[in-house]
Inverse folding.
């Protein structure tokens, strides 16, 4: 499921060109499209928090929390084995493709069936230091923990305790994994791109080189309104921004009734 980037672009142009409000170039549209998609995507997580505090219902189609989770589920994925880079059980968060939010981390120690995919508990950096010296809450292979930190250059890392062993490079060039770490996470949407070819000085849609929005199809109207609002700011057309904001607000109110 996806939202056609060409469908959104044509609707945005139709709104923007009405009453000669202005023209939006493909380059401008792509920038606005990326910003709009990320804002809608990030809002999912705040809305989940809000609707979790509300009573749901038994309908599969009108329960807002279920609908939101369905939209987020499109971006849930995992890495079956991350690369532990040192003897302290550290791996580079930037090595995980398009990481947005970590869901859970599973650790398998010593290739032992009783120590398979132990879910690591997140602790803060301060808690991590305290846990190491405590006999009561010290991490074990049946109850591992992980924490996040930045190195001096600003790169993001995760450290797991007890430390999973670093893979051993074999003579044949392959690796021997005694311990493995799986990361389940929510990835970012791909950058939307309306690509084109120029024919007779006109930009014509090139579907083979374009990238659609990855959001749920129900978000098409929201994308149009948000992009129009950005375009109104860029073109210094406050009436266009106000129109788009009014349409978006009406949609939000309808959803929350």
């Amino acid at each position: 499921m996806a939202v056609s980037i060409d469908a959104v672009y044509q609707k945005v142009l139709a709104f923007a060109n009405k009453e000669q409000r202005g023209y939006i170039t493909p380059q401008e549209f792509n920038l606005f499209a990326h910003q709009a998609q990320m804002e809608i995507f990030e809002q999912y997580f705040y809305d989940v928090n809000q609707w979790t505090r509300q009573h749901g219902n038994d309908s599969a189609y009108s329960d807002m929390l279920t609908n939101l989770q369905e939209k987020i589920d499109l971006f849930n994925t995992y890495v079956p084995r991350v690369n532990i880079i040192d003897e302290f059980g550290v791996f580079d968060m930037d090595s995980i493709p398009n990481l947005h939010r970590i869901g859970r981390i599973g650790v398998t120690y010593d290739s032992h069936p009783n120590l398979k995919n132990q879910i690591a508990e997140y602790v803060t950096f301060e808690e991590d230091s305290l846990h190491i010296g405590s006999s009561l809450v010290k991490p074990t292979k049946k109850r591992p923990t992980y924490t996040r930190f930045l190195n001096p250059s600003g790169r993001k890392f995760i450290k797991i305790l007890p430390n999973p062993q670093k893979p051993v490079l074999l003579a044949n060039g392959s690796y021997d994994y005694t311990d493995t770490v799986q990361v389940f996470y929510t990835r970012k949407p791909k950058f939307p791109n309306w690509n084109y070819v120029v024919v007779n000085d006109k930009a014509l849609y090139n579907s083979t080189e374009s990238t659609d929005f990855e959001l749920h199809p129900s978000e098409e109207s929201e994308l149009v309104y948000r992009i129009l609002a950005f375009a109104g700011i860029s073109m210094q057309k406050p009436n266009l921004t106000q129109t788009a904001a009014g349409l978006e607000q009406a949609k939000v109110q309808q959803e929350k009734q």
Summary: The chain has two domains: 5-74+191-256, 77-187. The CA atoms of residues 17 and 37 lie 22 Å apart. The longest strand covers residues 99-108. The chain has six helices and twelve strands.
